[in-house]
Amino acid sequence: MSNLIKAAEDIRSLAKRFAPIFAVADALEKIGSIEQAERDAVIRKDAAYAEEEKAKAVLAAKHEQLKAVELDIEAAKQKAEEIVSKAHAKAEEIVALSHEKSDAIVKDAKSQKEIIEKAIDSHRVKFQDLTVLIEQKKAELDKINLELEKMKAKIAAFVG
Prior knowledge:
Oligomer: single chain
Low-confidence stretches: none
Shape: rod-shaped
CATH superfamily: Helix Hairpins
Radius of gyration: 35 Å
Number of domains: 1
CATH class: Mainly Alpha
Number of helices: 2
Largest sheet: none
CATH architecture: Orthogonal Bundle
């Protein structure tokens, strides 16, 4: 047998022996991709939490504005009652303007509240979707880790 033929057979034999190592390298690369996807999903989840907190803060501020508007309305009513005793016509004008202003403010506050609540609901859905994705990626990672352990055992049995 020629040295070249013998060398070719030796190279083929080595290639067969190293095939499991290449499979391990592929598995490690997949694990790295899944781990990165998990980190990205956690970042998106945290961002969704932050957005939810911001939306809650805005909603709380709007509630405080609504309370202030309600206090303003009450003060305007008391003032109107005092003015009624002096000039009934002037009081009707003030009350009418006060109601228009308060209705517009209340309408705007309710509109803002609806927008914020929709945003909160949207973020909750995104959070739930991200949570499901994280669980799926963890299951995939567990499966790959199991396969990796099997491959390690095969390599150990093959090499050992």
